[in-house]
Amino acid sequence: MSPEFSLNIFPHPFIRRALQEAQYARDELGVDGVEGYRLAPPCKFIDDYVYFRVASDPSLTAEQLVDELAGLLCEKPENQKQAKEAISTLEQFWATHKLEDIERAEKLFRELLAEEHSKNLEYASHGVTFLTYVVRMAQPGVSAEQKTKLKWELYQTVKPMYIFQGLTSDIVWIPEAVRFFNARVEMMIEDYNSQFYAGCPYPEVVDRSIYPRATSKPFTLQWPKATTGVQPRSVTPM
Asked: pLDDT tens for residues 166-203?
């Protein structure tokens, strides 16, 4: 995942992929823990939690992770079922890129806000709401007039959201704030429609069977026979 994509401010669980990478690091590389991590906006709490949990325990299942997340996002046990559905639907959206999936996730998170007081739930829900508008504007056939209307609606929607104050109120003069906001939204739409996101370039899991098994043991590279008497060297792969 490129941290420079404008879309990466939004929640993206990466549950199955994170599990695959953590298990690969443990089973093939023989390492554990985390070497480094780029801090994300608070609306990415779901992503961060999954990342650090599987880094510490790669044996966890996707179901266990979603159960834990639902328990952290909801104070009321009766709301955890809906929270799990919301998280799973959000994860599904990033694999399908279907508008109905992100709209479903947004509706589920938004409904939970009326029942819960978790700040992490609030920030994640607001991030999904913003993302839903971006996906709507990125749909084929959306006219310039429709996009302008959706941008203004989005601006008014996220303006009171704490998590997006930097996007809507960073400049005191409102016309300038709106102009910069619109420019950032256009970057998000461009990223969403780019070839890097088209066709799900970040699949849920990667087919690692096409790669050689990782090893920390030196091995001899099979160079073509040299004519100058140079001998093969043993190297340790990075």
From this structure: 888 766 677 888 899 999 999 999 999 887 666 555 56
